[in-house]
Amino acid sequence: MRALVLGLAALLAVGCAPTVKIKYGQFALAYADAKALYTIVAVRLTDACKKTVLDATTCAYLDATRGSVKLIDDDVRALLRDPTTEPDWEKIGRYAEIVLGIGLKLSGL
To answer: DSSP character for 23?
Structure first.
């Protein structure tokens, strides 16, 4: 086990870490699933805000994230239209953070 850890550390130090390749079809399906889950969660939270089940801070957070989600969605769709481009994993990671944040808000319902 120690040898494995040292070997991975050496690869990272040299810059020869293995590269992970994701097929666009798989990525598109995973993205569609994530977007569908986000939509369900957002609708439930919006309903909860209308019924004043959630506090004003949570509802304001939901409203603030809508613009960010739209921008990231546009970027991901552009990526999927042109398979020669490399995914911007930072943007995809931000999308995941937003969706997870909203999911955490929903878990309190």
So the answer is: -
